[in-house]
Amino acid sequence: MSILLIAEHNNLNLKVFTLNAITAASKIDNEIHVLVAGNKCENVAKEVSAIPLVKKVLYSDSENYENFLPENLTPLIVKLSESHSHIIAAANTFGKNFMPRVAALLDVSQISDVIKINSSDEFLRPIYAGNAFASVKSNDKKKCITIRPTSFEPASTSGGSAQIEKIEAVEAPTISKFIKREETKSERPELGTARIVISGGRGMQSGDNFKLINSIADKLNAAVGASRAAVDAGYIGNDHQVGQTGKVVVPDLYIAVGISGAIQHLAGMKESKVIVAINKDGEAPIFSIADYGLEADLFEALPQFLDELNKLNTIQK
User: Fold this and answer.
1) Can you say how many angstroms the Cα of residue 115 is from the centroid of all Cα atoms in its chain?
2) pTM, 2 dp
3) Overall fold of domain 3-166
4) Residue 277: strand pairing partners
5) What is the sign of the dihedral through the CA atoms of 105, 108, 113 and 116?
6) What DSSP state is assigned to residue 239?
7) In Å, how far from its chain's centre is CA 309?
8) Domain 196-316, CATH
9) Helices within the chain (DSSP H only)
10) Could you tell me the residue ranges of all domains in the chain?
11) How many CA atoms lie within 13 A of 232 on its CB side?
12) How far apart are CA 207 and CA 81, in angstroms?
């Protein structure tokens, strides 16, 4: 039994969620092979080879893999799956882009968003927006699994010496073409991996009022999140959305401001280590899961919070 794990990277550096997925894979079997497919990404292959839990790196270099189109990646993954029992990727935009296609071509049922490995064929995953959990047992000979990265600690990145095996690229179909990539640049931490997240909801009332959230985030070196209601209202871009249809975050500290706590939002943040809620509605559902709650007008509370942070910074200087 061996595992084929698909590495997420940008052709220069390995993305951290791959390390979480490697930890999850190690709960299934020790024979972990990591596929690094990209263009001029030899440094990524070397980075993966230094991970102690990895036994082999399968390195495939081609312009067809530069932008990770699922139509191009899938034939390679399907070919390599012949000698592997499990195919694993992170349950984020990267993994969700190609794993359903791989599962369909292998004629197996994908097991999505796994948060715990019970055994090599039984997995725990959340259902009903995280309000219940299902233990899923798969009898498929090959298992396609996506891992919720925030449920597993990242693997150590040094001390390993895995073999790097060069893999020839597979002929790619011509049914799609990469045009361009538009990315939001920010000096703040990435939302999915930040230790502190402060999110705003419908109670922010406008996009301009998110300046309050941004100011506090800058002081705390925090990522900025939002509820779907705030995103749908146009207050902030959807790359900040936290929840069932957004990003799942598990920071050390999550501050929810003007967020009522709809079940879809809670599904994306309720595993946070410490949750602070600020809302003028004392009956808001967010208070039921908050470790600390402040029933107050956010337009009074946030400026006071910012003042206290400024005072603290002055004292520290």
Assistant:
1) 12
2) 0.84
3) Rossmann fold (3.40.50)
4) 256, 293
5) negative
6) G
7) 29
8) 3.40.50.1220
9) 16-26, 42-49, 70-80, 93-106, 210-220, 228-232, 263-266, 298-316
10) 3-166, 196-316
11) 9
12) 47
Q: Using DSSP, state whether 72 is helix, strand or coil.
A: helix
Q: Supply the DSSP string of 103-155, one letter for each residue.
A: HHHHT---EEEE-EE-SSSEEEEEETTTTEEEEEE---SSEEEEE-GGGSPPP
| Separation CA 148–CA 158 (nearest Å) | 23
In sequence order, the 6+-apart residues with CB closer than 8 A to the CB of 173 are: 71, 72, 75
| Sheet with 132-137, edge to edge strand ranges | 116-117, 122-127, 132-137
Per-residue pLDDT of the chain (317 residues; tens, 9 = 90+): 799 999 999 999 999 999 999 999 999 999 999 999 999 999 999 999 999 999 999 999 999 999 999 999 999 999 999 999 999 999 998 999 999 999 999 999 999 999 999 999 999 999 887 788 999 999 999 999 999 988 899 999 999 999 999 999 998 888 888 898 877 777 788 888 899 999 999 999 999 999 999 999 999 999 999 999 999 999 999 999 999 888 889 899 999 999 999 999 998 999 899 999 999 999 999 999 999 999 999 999 999 999 999 888 777 65
CB 11 within 8 A of CB 66: yes
- CA dihedral sign, ordered 140, 97, 84, 119: negative
Separation CA 272–CA 252 (nearest Å): 6
- Strands 132-137, 122-127: parallel, antiparallel or unpaired by DSSP? antiparallel
d(C-alpha 203, C-alpha 216), whole Å: 17
Q: Strand pairing of 196-200 and 223-226?
A: parallel
Please indicate whether the domains covering 3-166 and 196-316 agree at the CATH topology level. Answer: yes
Give the length of the chain. Answer: 317
